[in-house]
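Onboarding guide, step 5: your first structure request.
Type a short instruction followed by the sequence, for example:

Predict the 3D structure of this protein.
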Amino acid sequence: MTAQRRFPASVYRDGDEPDPRFSLANERTFLAWLRTALAMYAGAFALEALALPEAVGWRAAASIVFLVLGTLAAVQAWLGWKATEKSLRAGTPLPGLAVGGILVVGVVVAAALVTIGLYA
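The system replies with structure tokens like these:
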């Protein structure tokens, strides 16, 4: 398959084909980010579906935080995969993790919101 026929062409048009093990590891990382996004969405939906005995506003705020974090994780999956694959093909240093800390802080904030809601 030629580089012009592979998606996305912006990744595959430049550089050399890397060792397949590295591309497959990059794909596994992409899938792990997608699983993280799904877990965040599941957390948001579970908070609303279970209707915990807490203040509705706090629960809704925590659900919104989880939805935003899930969307952020899905965006990180795509952008991270793309940047890493380009780096592998160009033989340049791999990009750093951009949103890992944001997700950790967001989960702590969502847990705090749920906890406050239980005791409010």
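Each response can be followed by summary notes, for example: The chain has a mean pLDDT of 90.
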